[in-house]
Amino acid sequence: MTVSLTPLFFFLSFGLGPGPSAGAEEALAVPKERRGASHPLLPEGADLRPRADVGALKERIPLQEAWRDIAWERPGIKEEIRFLAIASEERKAPREPIPGWPYGSPFPAFVLKLFQGEEAYYKEGLYRFLEGRYREAVEAWELLLGRYPKGQLRSRASYWMGEAYYRMKDNWRALGAYSQALIEGRAGDKYRAYTHLAQGWIYLQGGEYERALSSFHALVEIKPRLSLTAIGHYLKGGSLLNLGRYEQASAAYSRSLELYPTGPLAAKALFWKAESLYHGGQYAPARNLYAHFLARYRPSPLSEQALYSLGWCQLGLKDAGGACRTWEQFAASYPHSGLLDSALIGKIRAFLIQRDLAAAQRTYRHLLTRRPESPWRDHALFELAAYRFEKEELGPAILAMEELLRSFPATPLRPTLLFLLGESFYRMGAYRTALSYYQRLAKEYATDPAWGPRSLTRIEEIQPRIDPVSLIPSSISSSRPQARPAAPAPGSACCGSPSPSGGSPGS
Which of 143, 144, 352, 412 lies in disulfide reach of 53, CB 3.0 to 4.6 Å? Predict the structure, then answer.
């Protein structure tokens, strides 16, 4: 059996989502704030910011178990996925000859003595590295660095020390060794490109996207062989995508495709270019790229994600009918997908855009039947309640939102619900009940930069509409014998509020 140093492939990614199917294992979700999504269901001032946190409801897959591909973000209710790491083609180590017999048999350790000087230590380190004895390999290279301060193999030894530390999951020492390799290396040394790639990879895994971007930029500036340069641009795109610099990310993926259109990363680069366009609000070209991807790379593991994404892109273009048809195809093609629940949420929204409340309610019941414990239940119910709010059907909207608060007290939609309940009672003239919801919002989210100021503004607006005497604390009003209890305000919650609790806020 021949012992040769094959390219070292390492890849990691993590995400969120309960049990994705085989096709969706590359699409593991993590929470990310939505960008560029339109929300036709709610009035101005009633945004859906908490929906962006829905990914936090998913279980995080341990890094050591998530040997899967890439992740990205999504606006709105869509399963949000975030780019972290790439597949096996993207992290490579250079080929290096290893001591061996001419006919391919493993070279015994005693033959290492045939090599002279620093080369003996260097070859011995490589030999131990291939055997998986990383600590012994590091010791051999440390001897080389210590005994040959002006040696010709110092940069290579430092690089392989970094690889050994990486294998031992000691990223801090690995980064130090890679930095030393860059210091020791000469211009034009092929190891410089690999060192930048290895450094950037560790930064990418650790979420240090600016540092990762710097490393990958340095890699492409060196202009190594074509395939490695294409990988550098591809990884630049991933870093930029995570940083929210979508236009630059799209350009990086385009450059990767230009350099290596038939390479192993071509399909992924096309997919992530579509994602970059989507997040940049360019829904039409993104839709076209998704469709092209599905036509050309349908057997790809990313096909499930591309079809799912196409539906959200169509929804972004207000093509609600097209989105519904796409998600129906998605459900038929991937009936066990971990993304199907959120696709049903998208269908509910699409039906409501078409003013088809009955179809939206049927889809909601289908979600409950399919997954009684789905973490998307509160979002589905909120879509229906928000639609009624928009239609000024305030009674049913209040009933639905108060029930949602009672059933899901920890929902990330809680501040939106408190605000909309206040708005609903305000429109009905039930100012005291509206005030109670605004006060709860102000108390529970006092430090929130969005909800805190908004609730205080509403409190200041509504207080003059209520009898000032009723706002005096009881300890003060009792010391004023002339003060009489204020009459209930017209239209208050106690005079016709549809709240099941008689106008008091739901819990």
Answer: 412
For residue 95, the model assigns a pLDDT of 62
DSSP-assigned letters across all residues of 126-180: HHHHHTT-HHHHHHHHHHHHHH-TT-TTHHHHHHHHHHHHHHTT-HHHHHHHHHH
Structure tokens at 373: 């414990």
Burial class (CB in 10 A: 0-12, 13-18, 19+), 190: middle
Taking the CB of residue 488, how many other CB atoms lie within 10 A of it?
A: 13
**490 bridge partner residues:** none
Q: At what angle do helices 340-353 and 357-370 cross, to 10 degrees?
A: 170
Between CA 264 and CA 392 the distance in angstroms is 54
Give the closest residue to 217 by CA, choosing from 51, 206, 203, 205: 203
SS3 of residue 40 by DSSP: coil
CA–CA dist 103, 116 (Å, integer): 23
Q: What is the DSSP letter of 16?
A: B
pLDDT recorded at residue 144:
93
Which stretches of the chain score pLDDT less than 70?
1-115, 467-507
| Contact present, 48 and 33 (Cβ < 8 Å) | no
Phi/psi at 283 (5° precision): -70, -35
Query: What pLDDT, on the 0 to 100 scale, is given for residue 505?
Result: 43
Which tens digits make up the pLDDT trace of 470-491? 444 444 344 444 444 444 444 4
d(C-alpha 58, C-alpha 377), whole Å: 13
Write down the pLDDT at residue 38: 32
Looking up tokens 């990363």 gives 265
DSSP, res 65: G
Q: Are the beta carbons of 447 and 456 closer than 8 angstroms?
A: no
- CA gap 74, 72 in Å, rounded: 7
